[in-house]
Automatic annotation (TrEMBL):
One of its GO terms (biological process) is ecdysis, chitin-based cuticle. Disulfide bonds join C40-C64, C44-C60, C47-C75. It comes from Heortia vitessoides. The lineage of its organism: Eukaryota, Metazoa, Ecdysozoa, Arthropoda, Hexapoda. It is found in: Secreted. GO terms for cellular component: extracellular region. One of its GO terms (molecular function) is ecdysis-triggering hormone activity. Keywords: Disulfide bond, Hormone, Neuropeptide, Secreted, Signal. This is Eclosion hormone. Residues 1-26 form the signal peptide.
Length: 88
């Protein structure tokens, strides 16, 4: 008898709460509505901190604005930051 009550309770709890939660709703970045330009400029600032005088931060930020955040620099990816590196 206890087994039937437990199964019924579990089934009831699942049905009662299933309408309140979304399972696998998507990636958190999309759920929060990320702004590509904001991420691009933040990455420029991070690269400037990491690379110092070797990295042209203002040029990177200008490209974020020009391309509306479509080309996001990754500090550890040489191909994405090569346009913003200088030879000192």
């Amino acid at each position: 008898m206890a087994g039937k009550i437990t199964v019924l309770f579990a089934l009831f709890a699942f049905i009662a709460f299933s309408g309140h939660f979304q399972i696998a709703a998507g990636s958190p970045a999309i759920a929060t509505g990320y702004d590509a330009m904001e991420i691009c400029i933040e990455n420029c600032a991070q690269c400037k901190k990491m690379l110092g005088a070797w990295f042209e931060g203002p040029l990177c930020a200008e490209s974020c604005i020009k391309f509306k955040g479509k080309l996001i620099p990754e500090c550890e990816d040489f191909a994405s930051i090569s346009p913003f590196l200088n030879k000192l």
